[in-house]
């Protein structure tokens, strides 16, 4: 009987841990979404993984994050180059304007 109480106490601690971490709410939301689907998916586990952002879509997201980071760096480089070229161009524009008048 004492073993039952210890086990129940650990179970309750674990339940509170899951609740505090937001796991119960996330799982409940996913299961509700599955329940509310008009056409049930052939693979419920894939549906759950997709809803939680796990699986191939997560890999795609990581790939897109890396690409975004690379493109952001390239953008920053090009903006710096553009700024430098504009500065150099301004050195010559006034001189051209004075010579044509």
UniProtKB/TrEMBL annotation:
The keyword RNA-binding appears for this protein: no
InterPro entries, sorted: AMY1
Keyword Coiled coil (UniProt): yes
GO cellular component: nucleus
Coiled coil: 61-88
MF terms in GO: transcription coactivator activity
Domain of life (superkingdom): Eukaryota
Protein known as: c-Myc-binding protein isoform X2
Source organism: Carassius auratus (Goldfish)
């Amino acid at each position: 009987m004492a073993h039952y109480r210890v086990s129940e106490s650990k179970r309750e601690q674990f339940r509170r841990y899951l609740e505090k971490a937001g796991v119960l709410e996330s799982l409940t939301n996913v299961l509700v979404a599955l329940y509310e689907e008009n056409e049930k998916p052939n693979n419920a586990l894939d549906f759950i993984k997709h809803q939680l952002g796990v699986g191939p879509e997560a890999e795609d997201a990581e790939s897109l994050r890396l690409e975004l980071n690379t493109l952001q760096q390239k953008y920053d480089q090009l903006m710096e180059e553009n700024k430098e070229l504009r500065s150099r161009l301004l050195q010559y524009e006034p001189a051209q304007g004075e010579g044509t008048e």
